[in-house]
Write a structure and sequence with these properties.
2 copies of one chain form a homodimer. Chain A has 326 residues and is an alpha+beta fold. Chain A has 8 helices and 17 strands. The first copy, chain A, folds into 2 domains: 269 residues, Nitrilase/N-carbamoyl-D-aminoacid amidohydrolase, CATH 3.60.110; 46 residues. In chain A, helix 4 packs parallel to helix 5. Chains A and B meet through helix 4, helix 5, helix 7, strand 16 and strand 17 of A and helix 4, helix 5, helix 7, strand 16 and strand 17 of B.
């Protein structure tokens, strides 16, 4: 499958950003892209550098103007497009949401960023409520897409949950860059760590990974920092974590990468990790930390008498199950 | 902390292998190692290339001759040693077990390999029962060690469970090599994938990783294959996945790597992944696969009436809990 990725700089003019994206999406489609992946919050500057209530005006409903805009492009160009939008759900309730547009212009599905970061210059917890749609891949005409967003990319759990639900690709729109006060060596360690952990998801799950990051420098409106130098370096790797393409740090790119969707089948036969997972030992993954306090916090032994009859309880996609080892 | 790693070839003579290891452990200790990590099943050839009941004679009880041997060395040299042994638990019941020897010669703890591979030339499911001790770090005088073994290294879940229990290092004794029939490019992809997924565990958990692999060629006694060329490449990386040392493929090495144990504290402050994990969404990680069959297999909805009072159920370290979202 031919996958187009667009790494670009953004300006404060949203209409300009959208027109540049439209032009780049056209270029990708002309080069044969069947799926186009955009970077995180591509319509605007990365506005989370400061906490400013006025910036909530950037949010828009879904469906709304942007799904209309990118949906029209998807239909015109016959491509699937992974967008990343600032979703207005209700006054004072916003999400960082990836919306996948189908070739017919409709919304194939959406994913609300589950893990929300909060660092100096990345004040996302101020703007975005953590997603409440869970980790679920989105079915499209080009396959089942395991779309997550940026900070999610550091978490093996999300990637695994996508793989367990049959995702065929792991996709991460991203906006990450350097602290100007860090040494070049530290900056390089961070960029490499970001790349490595996502390639690790590819290996652990036998799936290709597509990570699309913005590039360019964006100043801090508050003047407290020197702004963010987004590090670009968007990449596509195969199911062994092998690079199929890696973008430069400081250039805008529109690149088409041909991903062999049959390779995952072979790689997973060679390395059948899913065959051997020790799932009966994994329930403590739902704990914050496995210490005395963590155990006591969920200790409801007094209810044990009531549950002899129960075998399995879990909350999965609207079902409720119980599992008890007695 | 100064960590010694020993990557070596093995012969069919167990006494020779042990004496070579003893000599190398002495060298590491003389160079200042406080912790020495050995490769997987270091006492013998990698005997899992064929399924042969006679080879079960290689197994030994724990405690037993090998814990006596390495315990004496640990005491004499005042070092902690991570060993990897073929454990005889009962006739017809064997494990692939890492045993950590304390500086006083005692057993600090053991870990029974949880994920057991089975590939042509790696017939481990024939020899080893999957571990029944769970994923738990081992406390020692040099820190809390998250020891797992080889095939475990591909699984993010094990690494995360160790981190959640306060492990300060992730440690993997390993025996992995090339299929002679693979192309050089495929061999390189495999070696790189093996390295990347473990560096990914370092990043995801903010912990150093120590992986020690054997080197050298070992023939296939059955003659069915050309044997295994173990790919060496033992490495130590820091909590951002950054290489601190990487061994060559085909040479024996005794190397001392100085690991800054305070760096994890800083890296985790910068990237506080544990702060934001969406644990309420992680219980499906205990599923084999999230498909219709998987759901039906654990669907005991008829018991739901009984459980209104229950908040949380989990089996963790001997406790039983219940968690229900209603």
């Amino acid at each position: 499958m031919k996958i187009g990725i667009i790494q670009q700089t953004c300006s404060g003019n949203i209409e300009d950003n959208k027109q540049k994206l439209a032009s780049n999406i056209r270029t990708a489609a002309q080069k044969g892209a069947e799926l186009v992946v955009l970077q995180e919050l591509h319509n605007s500057l990365y506005f989370c550098q400061t906490e400013n209530v006025d910036l909530c005006s950037l949010a828009e409903p879904i469906p709304g103007p942007s799904t209309e805009f990118y949906g029209s492009l998807a239909k015109e160009l016959n491509v699937v497009i992974v967008t990343s939008l600032f979703e207005r759900r209700a006054p004072g309730l916003y999400h960082n949401t990836a919306v996948v547009m189908e070739r017919d212009g409709s919304i194939a599905g959406k994913y609300r960023k589950m893990h929300i970061p909060d660092d100096p210059a990345y004040y996302e917890k101020f703007y975005f409520t953590p997603g409440d749609l869970g980790f679920h891949p989105i079915d499209t005409s080009v396959g089942r897409l395991g779309v997550q967003v940026c900070w999610d990319q550091w978490y093996p759990e999300g990637a695994r949950l996508m793989a367990l639900q049959g995702a065929e690709l792991l996709i991460y729109p991203t906006a990450i860059g350097y602290e100007s006060s860090d040494t070049p060596e530290e900056q390089e360690r961070q960029r490499e760590a970001w790349t490595t952990v996502q390639r690790g998801h590819a290996v652990a799950n036998g799936l290709p990974v597509i990570a699309v990051n913005r590039t360019g420098h964006e100043p801090d409106p508050s003047g407290q920092t020197n702004g963010i130098q987004f590090w670009g370096s968007s990449f596509v790797c195969g199911p062994q974590g092998e690079f199929l393409y890696r973008a430069p740090k400081n250039e805008e790119i529109v690149e088409i990468i041909d991903v062999d969707m049959k390779r995952s089948e072979n790689v997973r036969r060679w390395w059948p990790f899913l065959r051997d997972r020790r799932i009966e030992e994994f329930s403590p993954l739902t704990r914050r930390f496995i210490d005395k306090e963590g155990i006591e916090a969920i200790d409801t032994i007094e209810t044990i008498d009531a549950i002899d009859a129960i075998d399995t309880i879990e909350d999965i996609g609207g079902f409720i199950f119980a599992r008890v080892w007695l």
